Amino acid sequence: MAVQVTALHQDDREQWEKLYNAYAEFYKVPMNRQILDQVWQWIFDPEQRFFSLVAKDETGVAVGLMHYREMHSPLRGAQVGFLDDLFVEPNCRGGGVADLLFARLKQEAKTNGWPFTRWITAENNYRARAVYDRLADKTPWLTYQLSSD
Questions:
Q1: Of 100, 125, 105, which Cα lies nearest the Cα of 116?
Q2: Is the pLDDT reported for residue 20 higher than 90?
């Protein structure tokens, strides 16, 4: 399968929604119109420094997406990248789509002057972790979340 990775465009909304809904379903996170509209706005607001890549097959059908952003790294006194979301259609997994998305992410990080891009994933996301272990260095950091409740 020939796949091309590009920045998300305004006319990709319907395909993006399909992929993003599937991503939310995978992580069992409720999704609604308000969230979709908010994320879509972030992607196309240059002040947000929030970006999206889309992988499309040879027919123009979106088979993967990636959301990433710029964030401060105080210890470095620099900006770095943070990968928020990555999703590849289940029937396209193992075909190199994730590799192509990560290759483009690496280019984008270099263009933005980020020394690295960091991300987290679920402990039980074994298939994705196998890809990450092949493409990146696992850090020693554990992730915690403090609720505002």
A1: 105
A2: yes
Q: Could you tell me the two tokens for 56? A: 């499309």
SS3 106: helix
Alpha helices in the chain (DSSP H): 13-26, 33-44, 97-112, 126-135
**Nearest one of 51, 44, 43 to 68, comparing CA atoms:** 51
78-88 and 117-119: which strand pairing?
parallel
What is the pLDDT confidence band of residue 1, given thresholds at 50, 70 and 90?
confident
Please state the rounded mean pLDDT for residues 29-55. 97
pTM: predicted TM-score of the whole model, two decimal places: 0.95
3-state secondary structure of 74: coil
Q: Which CATH number fits domain 3-135: 3.10.150.10, 3.40.1390.20, 3.40.630.30, 3.40.50.2300?
A: 3.40.630.30
